[in-house]
Model the fold of this input.
Amino acid sequence: MRSLILRVACTSALVVIHASCLNTAARDRSTHTIGQPPAAVELCARAVSSMGGRRRLEGLKGLELHGVTVSPLPNGDNVEVETSIWLAYPDRALQEVVVPHGGKLVLLLTPKSLYYSEGGQPGGFQASGSRDRDDFVANLARNPVALLKGMNDSRCTSHETTDDDGRPVDVVRIENKSGSTLAAIERATGHVIRISYEVGNGESRTDYTIDYSDFRPVGRMSYPFRQVRRENGKVKSTIVLDRVVPLTKIDLSRFAPPSPFVE
Done:
């Protein structure tokens, strides 16, 4: 169950925005674009503009997500769980999963640790290993909202045009302190339909790909309500959202370390 909640959390943490405000792209370019390919810089600026511009993005402190996550089991069956997650950028998250047999799995990310509880477990929360935390933080940093919030500290280092099932797409590589991320933008709509990146190295390296679809309006933004996550080419989970709430204020008490842990 612990591996399930970590999988669900990684999936739920990844949300992307519709590119719709293209006429504001010029003023939403990163202020550090020297030496970067102009076409790649323009694509990054379009993505920032899709969220209403840089100022609006800076005011977005987190996200609240609710939906259902479907994950394949080793025997070929699927497990479906109700999922809720609260994100507070850059390094806080709370995940709650209602499991089929009853009970609740909880995952809590704080600036220093990652805790988990498997519902009814004696002793309540336990601290997870540092690798689990590092992987979760790396995934959270690749959430396209977080990725674009940090554009002034990132570089758009390359751009290419390709084809995805008959759809022309532009692919831009974004480099920042978390590493390298590829973002694929559908030419016809401006939707970011896929991101790809690696976490870890050597034998512990994992290649992640997240596909986005079913874009719906949320306020002045547009979010993908369906996301499919693959690890090393294999589907690990699919999340179907039914509610997305942008957060401009964060209640830090929601992310306080559980007793008896102190940070």
